[in-house]
Automatic annotation (TrEMBL):
This is Calcium-dependent phosphotriesterase. Glycosylated. It comes from Trematosphaeria pertusa. Glycans are attached at residue 386. It comes from the Eukaryota.
Amino acid sequence: MRGIVKACVSGRPQARRLSYPSSTSRILHQRSAYAIQDTTKDTKNACAALTKHTDIKDVPRQHQRPARASAARPFTKKPANVFPSTHLTLPPSTIPPASVMARTAIYLVILAAIAPYLYDRWQALSAMLANRPGKLEPVYNIKSHKIKFRDRVRNCEDVVLDEGMGIAILSCDPGRDRWNTVMGTFRAENGLESGALWLYDYSTPDLPDDEAMKRLQWANFPNEADFHPLGIEFDHATATLYAVNHAQSGSALEVFTIDVNTATATHIQTFKHPLLHAPNSIHALGAGKLFVTNDHFFRAAVAPLLSKLETWLAPPGGSVVFVDLERPQESRVVARVAFANGVAMLNKTTLAVASTSRAGVYFYEVEPDYSLKSKGFVRTLAAVDNLSVDSAGALLMAGHPSGLALISVAKNRWKCDAQSEKEDERLACGCQSPSWVAEWTESGGLRELYKGGEFCSSTMAVRDKARGVGFVSGLYERGVMVFRE
């Protein structure tokens, strides 16, 4: 009884097990096995019950709480911890279930894992949005330019130089309007013109256009009616030219010997290999050894939807393949790259590979067995297409600042007929996809040379540093852009 009275008068809860007179015990034992627990509510209830049977005046004075202002202050002395302390807990309704907490943790882990990927995609796509029609800001860091041979060549994908002879070789395909295996255009039933290789003498002054630009004549080439060239490469030492042919009968590498004096391309062989399922660009290492890129894992002719998803989502579905024409069994994949496109040796030990989907260039160290070891990645301001290296060691690149504009051109290009009476067919021959040219050096970084819409859909830039002249080809453009610095 003494303990209860003391608790009621002093306001301090008691944690000792007590015994009571029968009248009080019946009331308190209905609520708890212990008289008073360490809670304010139970103390009040116990005191209320006690006052029914006990007169407060009967309580000894030493147990009464002094009637002074300080009595309302919080306790500074903690009661003796006779029983284990009772911790404050939230009501069950405010505590998330364990399953919800587990799911939240999983989502956070997934978000942390994909955050770098999302940031990478944003960097690539934001540049494209910034260069959309009406928003593109032109760049002109060249001395002058001129578009030549509009009435001679069109849809030229690639250009290679032989600076010693002062010539350029171009791969051009008018049939690309209706047959583009990369962009997913397959309209051969509407008539398909075959492609060609062109020889351009740019070093002889005052040469008439019809003599400066000559179409190479075929010799012993069985596939000349089904020739749709993309990337080309010229081995100066052996006068051997390699060309990617996206023929209707299947993609292959065509090998020629070039006679510049007679403007003749003599066919040597057609090379096919299971690893070259979507060949795009070539770099020759000599003695029949090549690096060849496959732009996609899913080909547009087989899986058009997956091919588009691969383009936009940028998984490393493309590849770099080491090819030995003399020992095909030694061919193997040496790198995986998202939309692998242009390829060029920056120096004797470093290979550069363009990634169109990621808008950048990968650099690899070439091992003695032609394996590749990653060295780094450089972000660009456009979707890079092809690469070249000039005599000063600068890496030149051309590409597409607005991929959406290029897709729009390719979508309706199959209707192109400049002589048609139908307006939509004449308009389909237009090209509103801007061009972009830049150079990169290790010391100076990336420097834009040209960005604008006067020349359409640039794919390759090459430069004769000694003569101060360069050339740009366009995937869906007429003619060649010739620039000077």
